[in-house]
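Working notes for the structural subgroup meeting. M.R. asked for a predicted model of this chain before we commit to crystallization trials. I am recording the input and output together here so anyone reviewing the notebook later can reproduce the run.

Input as submitted:
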Amino acid sequence: MFLRDDATELTIQHEMWHIDDFKKLGFTEYHNTPNWQLEELVWERVWKQKHRWTQEEILESYKYYLTECRKQGGIPKLVEELEKTIK
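Returned structure, recorded in token form:
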């Protein structure tokens, strides 16, 4: 795992969740899973633990998830509460 010098706690946690998913799914299944779905798994954890993060971090994470889904042909699970904020 490579992290920026100024990586936030959320960034580190995000990457740790990817590692957890890799360990759970195994090499082959992890690498056969579309990246947007892997990002969705991480996003769902961010949202479930939203009390840990600032509103700015949550919005940034949500926008990243949406972007990754859409550019890779996935259909994101929208969070109406956040959709109102970003429009």
